[in-house]
Specification:
Layout lengths: L7 H24 L1 H8 L3 H29 L2 H18 L6 H15 L3 H11 L2 H33 L1 H9 L1 H12 L20 H8 L3 H31 L4 H30 L6 H22 L3 H15 L3 H10 L6 H35 L3 H5 L3 H32 L1
Helix pairs in contact: 1-4, 1-6, 1-7, 1-8, 1-9, 3-5, 3-16, 4-5, 4-6, 4-8, 4-9, 6-16, 7-8, 7-12, 7-15, 11-12, 11-15, 11-16, 11-18, 12-13, 12-14, 13-14, 13-18
């Protein structure tokens, strides 16, 4: 039996836990938004900045050069160092006494998390062959929703019982111990060890990776589709706790418990099914790796219409579960598609480029735009301003649906072109 350090399921489990902590640390501010807003006298625009663009700015900028280091060197060590940094910056967020101090702490979290996913994606592709990668990425991506669940439920409970500052301390520091475990119990795999087509040993430049990726229309359309999908996801997720507290009178712990389960279970199930189903139906027609996200996007928009225009709390929670489930379908298949279009020593950079687009559009502008629109509408609609601000999701979600359809149209041709280029080099 293989040493546990080289066991693909152990490695995948540990990397999924790392991703879980990244979303605990990323999303904890969301459930703590209302008490922080009151104590620090913040606007919805400032909340949108803190939960979105402040984190995303350096996260997306540093992701590419850090991924370049990962494609050239030891990915496991990069992940361990990054996890230590973002966990520490989350913890010291609890000491912030002003908007600007909290802003700097969130920027620090973004810097740390820039070194998390791209190296992890690259390691996963080395442990799992192409036909099983979407499922592996789906399991890994469940860390998003497990992190949201724990951040909302545990963070909400701690904040209600002991205050929002203690919540930051309690959920930030454990990540340091996970970083130590990762460093000592995971072995760095050989790049490309699970590929069917072997590549040369030379690591490509960032320019070469960009040139390769953006020569494929399927990647361009799919990446933009992820960005506009994430715009709605982050915008909704980051403001829905406030929505329930302001409009439906829930306290912080209630909103955290309900949304933790809805986002955690619904989103986790959706992202797993998206990857698992894609690997199954993709065997018959590769275009279903992108047609699936297209159809799921349509369903999620229909269910979200019920969410924001209903006043019945049971309908709101039930349909929000389905919205979250279907809006999570896209991520694992798109990562799998991206990795199928580049060689093994391009994959960390390829993931960082995909996540640059996803987070620049989605995390950078989703919460900020919804917060800004909400502030503009407060004089007319009061606390209901968030309901109308959420309506912009129908525009971005419709764009994502169209883009996934265009990506599916070009994918088979692009994949054949990539395989031909490998065989001639």
């Amino acid at each position: 039996m293989k040493n546990y350090k080289e066991n693909k399921w152990y490695v995948l489990t540990l990397l999924t836990l790392v991703y879980t902590f990244s979303f605990i640390d990323r999303q904890i501010l969301v459930i703590l938004a209302e008490p922080i807003k009151k104590e620090l006298a913040l606007s919805d625009t400032q909340l949108g900045l803190l939960t979105g663009l402040a984190f995303a700015a350096l996260y997306v900028v540093l992701g590419v050069p850090i991924a370049r280091l990962a494609d050239k060197g030891n990915r496991k060590n990069i992940i361990a160092i990054s996890l230590t940094l973002w966990s520490f910056m989350t913890a010291i967020s609890g000491a912030a006494s002003s908007f600007h101090q909290l802003l700097l702490a969130r920027i620090g979290v973004g810097i740390g998390e820039a070194g998390g996913s791209p190296p992890s994606h690259s390691i996963i592709s080395d442990y799992f062959p192409p036909k099983k990668r979407a499922t592996a990425f789906a399991i890994y991506s469940m860390g998003i929703y497990l992190g949201v669940l724990l951040g909302f439920v545990v963070g909400g409970y701690i904040a209600k019982s002991y205050g929002w500052r203690i919540a930051f301390y309690s959920l930030g520091l454990p990540g340091v111990f996970l970083a130590i475990l990762l460093y000592y119990t995971v072995k760095e795999p050989r790049k490309g060890q699970s590929d069917l087509i072997k590549t040369n040993s030379k690591a490509p430049t960032i320019k070469e990776v960009f040139k390769t990726l953006f020569s494929y229309k399927s990647f361009i359309y799919a990446a933009l589709g992820t960005g506009f999908t994430a715009f709605g996801q982050y915008g909704i997720n980051n403001f829905f706790p406030s929505y329930l507290q302001r409009i439906h009178g829930m306290n912080l712990a209630q909103a955290g418990y309900i949304l933790g389960l809805v986002f955690g279970v619904g989103g986790g199930l959706g992202v797993f099914l998206g990857g698992y189903i894609s690997d199954r139906i993709g065997l018959k027609d590769l275009r279903w790796y992108l047609r699936g996200p297209m159809l799921a996007s349509i369903v999620s928009l229909i269910s979200f219409a019920v969410v924001i225009f209903s006043n019945e709390i049971s309908w709101i929670i039930g349909m929000l579960f389905f919205t979250t489930l279907f809006s999570g379908f896209y991520l694992a298949p798109v990562i799998g598609v991206t990795h199928s279009l580049v060689n093994a020593k391009m994959r960390a950079i390829a993931s960082s480029v995909l996540f640059f687009i996803l987070n620049f559009i989605g995390l950078g502008f989703g919460p900020l735009t919804i917060g800004y629109i909400s502030d503009l509408l407060i004089p007319k609609y009061g606390d209901s301003s968030l309901r109308w601000a959420f309506s912009i999701v129908f525009v971005t979600g419709s764009l994502a649906t169209i883009l996934f359809g265009w990506a599916a149209k070009h994918y088979k041709k692009d994949l054949k072109r990539f395989e031909a280029s490998i065989q001639t080099n």
